[in-house]
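We now fix the convention by which a protein and its fold are recorded. The integers have meaning only within a learned vocabulary of local backbone shapes. A record is reproduced here so that you can trace the correspondence yourselves:
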Amino acid sequence: MSLKRLTVAVMLSVCSFAVHAKAQKNELSGLVGRILISDQVITTSTFSDNKLRFGNGLSFEGNYGRQVMGGGLLSLALEVPVVLNVDQDLHLQTNPVSANYRSFFVTPAARLNLFSGLGVSPWVSVGGGLGYFRGSAAQPTSTSTTGTTTGVFQAGVGLDVKLIGNFSLRGEARDFWSGVPKLGVTTDKSRQHNLFVGGGIVWHF
């Protein structure tokens, strides 16, 4: 093969690799899971069982991310996780009718991946944004919530496992530390941990 042809072949290979590498900097993911919230004590209750109990809310996450630095051993990505909790049940011993609410979190974040170029990549994520709650009140004498907007701090850990082609499997846990929704009762918390645990698919492009 002549030097000219070899040079052209090498340049085409490099360009092809560069285009492929550039394409792999973006990702879209979809996950399904549950949001877990610990019990809260109702400070105004005179009953022996004075706890407000939360069910495990069915939740969905959509996430766009883009790698901005590194690769191989360590890489840094900017991401926008969006989590929707479609049904968070509430239970009170004094109220036989269960209440519920929905919540929505948007928290732009920075994510650090370890071994991002290999088949298995653990990661950590830190960010912050906004949360919104809306639903029915926990007390039958209270009016429904008109909506609660709150600042949110997000911290998460996860694991990406390469499947086939440009797809990976992701398992994660993210804690959305937010204000509390207005539910018609006064509890001992002014902020609460909304722990999302879920899994799903990541598309790299």
